[in-house]
Amino acid sequence: MGPHSRFGLAAFAALVLAGSATPAVAGGVPTAVAEAGLLTGHVRDGSGHGWPVRAKVSMSGSVTYSDPSTGAFRLDVPAGTVGEVSVDPVYPGYETSTTPVTVAADGTAVDLEVTAETETCRAPGYRLDGMTEGFDTPATTEGWQVVDHAGTGNIWRFDDPGGRGNLTGGSGGFAIADHDAGSAQAFDSSLISPKTDLSGVAEPELQFSSDLRDLGSGTASASVSVDGGQTWTAVWSKSGGERGPITHVVPLPAAADQPDVKVRFNFTGGIYWFAVDDVFVGKRGCLPVEGGLVAGTASDQNTGAVVAGVRARVDGAVMASPSSDPGFYWGFLPTGEHTVAVDSAEYVAEEIPVRVSPDEVATADVSLAAGRLEVAGAGIDATVPWGETGTQQITVTNTGTAPATVGVRERDRGFALLQPDGTTEPPERLDDDWAPAAPAPQNQAWSRLPSLPMGITENIAGDHDGDLYSFGGASADRKAITDGWVLRDRAGAWQPTAPMPEGRLAAAGGFVDGTMVMVGGWVDNRQHLASQVLRYSPKADSWSTGAASPQALAGSGSAIMDGVVYTVGGCTTVCGNNSVLAYDVAADEFRRLADYPVKVSWPSCGAVDGRIVCAGGADTDDYYGVNGATWIYDPATDTWTEGAHFPGESWGATTWTSGGRLVAAGGMYAGFPTRDAWAYDPGQDRWSQLPWLNTLLYRGGSACGVRVGGASAGYTGKQDVFVLSGYDGCDPGTTDVGWVSSAPEAGTTLQPGESVTMTLTADPAGAGQPGDLAAQLGLVEDTPYPVSPLAVTMRVPAPKDWGFLQGTVTAKACDGTPAPLAGATVQVDGVSSGWTLTTTADGRYRRWIDKDEKQLQLVVGHDGYEIETRLLKAPKSPVDVATEDFSLTRTGC
């Protein structure tokens, strides 16, 4: 049902306020008082309860929210403005309204009412005067009965066996008697409703939406019973077809004031089908339920700002906290005493006792405490000779209102090897003006793992305790499978796990605290969406179910952070959505977050440094429109900000996070699979290119540095499993930087007002080679406020008794043609130490060598080529450069 404009009673007054800005109150009901230069008033319920209503109030570009406890609002509108004041209630189920207003020179006051819509009666504190059913699950709805009169197995179904789609005019699931999708035998089946009590309802009706396709040989009918189904009276019948969408309203005078009413739909004979949806029995209208509202706003005790992403529960039940109104929460409760518990990530939870009175709003505002850290001091920027160390001290103070725990997280920012001439060769980076690389042979950085037992796509994968898992996905016939497999220690053969309760395609999720969590996805050959969370325990090798998602989606991007599974965008009946949901695994509950800035499906998402990063994805249902934007979500503010453009512009890529970067490998670009792989560093807001993929695959499972299955085209899944060395560890953005350390290392808890002094140390010995090194030290803390990382840079000169070894390895084909050989192994052994080097893309290797190694043995090899060995003296000083080039001959020539 679409929204429509409706306004109720509006009282206009033009009273000059004298000495007070508080609206006058008479008999507990606020009366609007005008103020000069303002549009003021109140928003209240107009359907029976009469309580104040939280709503967005706007006029002529000015916007505000009414107070949830009083309904009062104030709008700055220039005097003389003629227009309409719009009211959009925060609470669901209320009609929006517009009311004509002229703002007087001395201000205008207007009291506004909003009414509960009667189609579904979803407004808090109201119920329908009758029974309604939308058939939104693929199984028989509780209380409904399906009867097979012919005994042929041709019956009413709720899973759309013929793939018709909902043609009734309703949305989501529906009920259908589909002869064409069943056997050729007779069709005579009834769908019978549960009992409905219509006592006191004088003029009941049967309302339903339908789609009847028939050639005249079948009959669709509706009947009513007032004795619990013992006898039936026909109230509607149709033969010969009546295509939807169409809505029927059928009077039921025989059911007036009856306590045991049932309705029945029947389809007999027929060639095609009879589908129904949105069934209602009763009289349209909303009846008030005894009780009142509880409403509150959570604010930050340190800053006074509202707390985005707040979670509130009352007596254990989750209260609503709309993302469009940060910090606000509300709920309808029966009269009496209740306890409201409010928390948000990294804040201290609070409980508030409230007393709910009939038709009133109980206020449950709360101020949440949190730790807050301030850092005095800087990082390290120094030249440190070999054998010495560089140090720096910083002081961290908790200026917040709750304890805070702080530690240090290291992140490598690169190494540039010192050259004999004193310059450094920077690490490979992609220029901002990037261009796709030329085609290259299979890259040595991607290597195979054991293949899956069968080809699959749209599966979900994950790592747990060193084991690799894959669940669900689509088989060659595009149907969802229930199979799961595990690859122990990423070696050997895949072993089956306990089967899933149902097959799923394109679900989101991953491992959270040792449990595989699967959110959303398609079931039944893409005919329906799964709303129930599935959980798998590797320890018990068993499945269980979790909460139902408020919005079932498939093909969503997903990220896991702090025990929460985040899903971004996805597909319903069409692909492209901007919904963002957070599933708290421990609490087994969902909440909505700020919408993604664009509609998208199959984006690449991951958690990096306490934020969610998403890039790419398809932005049209035909998958040819691709979103190249990068967006970063901050849970502390419930906001998205745009990052650097994603050069890959792909959807359906293999995605994970490693070393503080989001990796997106493969996927579909411009309608074709791509080999490109990219990594995004939020700290530098920069994308860099990774080694090309071995095969063209998209829509496969993603684990830690691993791509599991996927399709090369269409829906034909592959068995391929590949791992990218150097990026095969999922983490929260931490790496062990060997040359930098901090003390104390472990987390230190600071009470409000306390400080700790930390010592940072840079040690060249941990670097292993002279050159320029960079790292970041981030504070690992449990506060809701960002703390900027500290930069650590160190230049290490070459010791006076070290020399430089370098060379190039080329591959010699059978015809003698040379070419640089990437990925060749150069084993260097001295008298006391040894090193294994790997040649770069242009075949080079380089290393500084201590002269005390004296004599060096070099062994150079590569798969498919003959090995070469060479002896030489170790270089003795920074100006002593030993150059040893090798030319390997392919075996078999």
Account of the protein in words:
With 893 residues, the protein is mainly beta. The chain has 6 domains: 11-114, Immunoglobulin-like (Sandwich), CATH 2.60.40.10; 126-288, Jelly Rolls; 292-368, Carboxypeptidase-like, regulatory domain (Immunoglobulin-like, Sandwich), CATH 2.60.40; 373-424 and 734-796, Immunoglobulins (Immunoglobulin-like, Sandwich); 453-668, Neuraminidase (6 Propeller), CATH 2.120.10.80; 802-889, Carboxypeptidase-like, regulatory domain (Immunoglobulin-like, Sandwich). Helix content is 0%, strand content 46%. The protein contains no helices and 76 strands. Strand 66 and strand 67 (790-796) form a beta hairpin. It starts with 10 loop residues before the first strand and ends with a strand. 45% of the residues are buried. Residues 1-36 and 427-444 have low confidence and may be disordered.
Would you identify the CATH architecture of the largest domain?
A: 6 Propeller
Shape estimate: globular
Mean pLDDT: 86
The overall number of domains is 6
Share of helix, binned: under 10%
Structural class: mainly beta
Please give the count of helices: 0
The largest sheet is: 6 strands, antiparallel
